[in-house]
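Researcher: Structure for this, please.
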Amino acid sequence: MLVFNAMALNFDINKPQSLAPYIDHTLLKAEASKHQVRMLCDEALEYHFFSVCINPWMITTAREVLRTTKVNICTVVGFPLGATEASVKSFETGRALNLGAHEVDMVLNIGALKAKEYSYVEKEIQSVVRAAEGRLVKVIFETCLLTDEEKKKACELSVNAGAHFVKTSTGFSTGGATVADVTLMKAAVQSRAQVKASGGIRDLKTAAQMIEAGATRLGTSSGVLLVKGQDATSSRNY
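Model: Predicted structure, token format:
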């Protein structure tokens, strides 16, 4: 029997439902409707997922369904390119929390990181952490666009800035999460932050590998199939 431990969570590959507390049930497609988001929330409630991850303008819709439940609302900032100004990301964060979000997944400024403008990147993450006022902040790297050294640097900057998680991918670029990237990121942050794997997690084996490598949260739109022990041949977003 394969059992993987992560923080206070326990995942048993022979009990697919045990994956549920790891999952940010995700729908970030531009064309997502309110009806689809309500369905997403209903699924999160039925299968006991940790959160739903949705675009900011859908927060109030999700809140209508989840207001009195334990399912968190996660939203995205600077998504998907990370190229907006730091002040805009901070404003987005504050606005999202006012609308009812509990967690924020921000895309770091990838261009600034690659240009070695490290002070800017760290201060930008700090500004989002401050705007979040203690709520969870996850920093999305878009690992498919970075070298290993850039990934390590992004981990360092994120931890220094007070972020709670580092996250692999948006699901909208040229690649998603890999075991190698999760392993690298976990080693880089050690116990100072957690790791979220996202992008391309559509089968139980892949999910198990990500958790074994150190991920404590999984971003996927295939969560329902995963907790049923089924593989997804396609997904709504990731």
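Researcher: Any notable elements?
Model: Residues 1-8, 234-238 have pLDDT under 50 and may be disordered. Strands lie at 3-6, 9-12, 23-27, 51-54, 72-77, 103-107, 136-140, 165-167, 194-198, 215-220.
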